[in-house]
Structure formats: structure tokens, C-alpha cells
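Each letter names a residue; C-alpha cells follow underneath. Both lines appear below:
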Amino acid sequence: MRCVRVVGVDPGLASMGLAVVELKAGGPELLSLQVVRTKPPAKKLRLRQADHDAERVRLLVAALAKQITPDTLAICYEAPAGGRSARGAKALALCVGALVALAELHKLPLLSVSPQELKEKLTGSRSASKATMIEAITLRWPDAAWPLPASTWEHAADAAAAIVACLDSPIMLAAQRGL
């Protein structure tokens, strides 16, 4: 039986959610949930902020690259409209740029969904709370192994929800028909 994997990402410079789902004839199976965290710089910077940000992105890319295998079909990610500040928008842009580069390097399609689309596809409500999102993932995949600490679950849930939201994209539908 042929199986393909899909990687879901909730991009963020401080915390990046990752989920891996295997598409099978019996339906999608959650393989892993993970949150990768990076530390902000110390008060006295020995590096320029841009250099520190680049190092954080490198750590995130390394963790994401470990999830990509030859049977990976696509990368799905939550694409927020922007950060709450100029610094937040810059951090998000760095993360999305890294996703684009990694997808291109592996010749994978990169599928994005807005936070509202993600919530609606998973829960039926465009304004679902983080707790509702976590509950919906738990109902879909009751055996999910959530990363610790629990305060990071929202990132893992968003990464998994990105995959769920992309399941009806043409690329995913074609893959599922071929299983």
C-alpha cells in the first residue's frame, strides 16, 4: 500500500509548530506533533540582531528538514496576515522565507492557509479559540502525543490544522485518490 506524508508548519521565530501526517487509504494518520523553540538573545548582544535571527532560523530549518522524507508530498503552513509589530512581521517573514527556500530545495509544493480558514476547516468556526483547536485535533487523533510543555500545544495544533485545511486542495485530493 502506497503512503505519502505531509508536513504541517505553524511558523514562528520563537516557537514553530510541526506536524507530520501520513495519507493512507483509510484516512490521514497523525505521525508526530512537535514544537521547536528558540531562545531570544541575551540582554547584551554579542551578535547583531540580524545575525542572531539568522541563527534562530537555521535551527528551525534544521528541525523542519528532518521531517522531510522522499515520500513527502507537500508542506502546509498557516500564513498569518502579519506580525503585531514591525519586529514580529520581520520574524514571520524570515520564517516564511525559510519555508519557501526549503520547499524549493526539496521540490515540494508549499500550501498556505489563513488562520481563519484553518479554524473553519477544523472546527467549523472562523473564530475558534486555541483551546477549541486543540480539542478538535485531539478528537480527530485521540492518540496524539502532544509535546511538552502544554503551553506550546497551540503551535502543534495549528501545524496539524494546516494539514487538515489543505486536505481538499487539488494536490492533496489527487494524492488521496491514488492511494
In short: Strands lie at 4-10, 15-23, 29-37, 72-78, 110-113.
